[in-house]
């Protein structure tokens, strides 16, 4: 589908907030993964709430979560790009979906491309992508991709495969519009190493009840030369690099 020149496979982390098995959200996210995989080389880590959902509740601190979920959070923080999907519950993402992202380190997703997806029972809640999901990932200063994908129950067969041609077209469009942005995805496969320290600190200290003071915000791994960029903007000297 594309001539995108990506030497190393992109490190894609997909998250499905669907709690059921089978799950329409999971099927939708898988279809997006498949489409992207046809266009460019990718490695995929797929986090399914149908598997980890019940492990999430009750934890206030990240170190209270099972190791498996801590590893999933670290994978999200190390991703070159995310594909995130949630079922619509009461006009929003599910509570557990938000709870999971409350544990993600606040600065780890700066500039990370995020493809937004949701499945709902009704077309009337399609704007959940714009009114709920996009602001959440804007908070992280992630780069939410221009086209999101919304599906309804009607788009799936009883076996939860996608039978709607329009939905397939939308998935193709979302991936096609994502490709130019993924081309300059901050890390092109090199981000994982840079982010490790952030994830380790988060595993030790991060609680959903703790606000990060601005001074504590670590420099972005995605934009390591932010200081230099700022210096150009404000005609300031770059801050001395502290090893
Ligand atoms: C508790 C609950 C609340 C729901 N609220 C909404 C809603 O507000 N709007 C909507 O369009 N669908 C709603 N639905 C329907 C689901 O979003 C829809 O069936 C979705 O595709 C389920 O995804 P899954 O198969 O991955 O679990 C709700 C379903 C449940 C179980």
From TrEMBL:
Q: Name one GO molecular function term.
A: oxidoreductase activity
Q: Which keywords does the record carry?
A: Flavoprotein, FMN, Oxidoreductase
Please provide an example of a Pfam family that matches this protein in its UniProt record.
FMN_red
| Signal peptide extent | none
Q: Which InterPro entries match?
A: Flavoprotein-like_sf, FMN_Rdtase-like_dom, FMN_Rdtase_MsuE-like, NAD(P)H-dep_FMN_reductase
All copies of the NADPH-dependent FMN reductase-like domain together span: 11-155
**Family per similarity comment:** Belongs to the SsuE family.
* Annotated NCBIfam families: FMN_reduc_MsuE
Q: What is this protein called?
A: FMN reductase
Q: Which organism is it from?
A: Acinetobacter tianfuensis
């Amino acid at each position: 589908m594309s001539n995108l020149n990506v030497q190393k496979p992109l490190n894609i982390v997909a998250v499905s907030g669907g709690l059921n098995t089978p799950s329409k959200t999971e099927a939708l996210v898988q279809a997006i993964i498949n489409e992207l995989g046809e266009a460019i080389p990718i490695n995929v880590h797929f986090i399914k709430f149908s598997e980890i959902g019940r492990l999430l509740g009750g934890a206030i601190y990240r170190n209270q979560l099972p190791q498996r979920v801590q590893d999933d959070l670290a994978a999200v923080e190390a991703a070159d790009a995310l594909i995130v999907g949630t079922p619509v519950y009461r006009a929003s993402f599910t509570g557990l979906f938000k709870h999971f992202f409350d544990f993600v380190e606040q600065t780890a997703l700066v500039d990370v491309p995020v493809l937004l997806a949701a499945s709902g029972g009704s077309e009337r809640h399609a704007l959940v992508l714009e009114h709920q999901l996009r602001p959440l990932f804007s908070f992280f200063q992630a780069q939410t991709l221009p086209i999101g994908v919304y599906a309804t129950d009607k788009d799936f067969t009883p076996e939860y495969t996608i039978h709607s041609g329009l939905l397939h077209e939308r998935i193709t469009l979302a991936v096609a519009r994502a490709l130019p942005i993924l081309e300059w995805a901050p890390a092109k496969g090199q981000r994982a190493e840079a982010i490790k320290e952030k994830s380790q600190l988060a595993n030790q200290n991060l609680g959903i009840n703790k606000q990060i003071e601005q001074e504590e915000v670590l420099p972005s791994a995605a934009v390591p030369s932010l200081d230099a960029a700022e210096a150009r903007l404000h005609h300031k000297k770059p801050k001395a690099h502290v090893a």
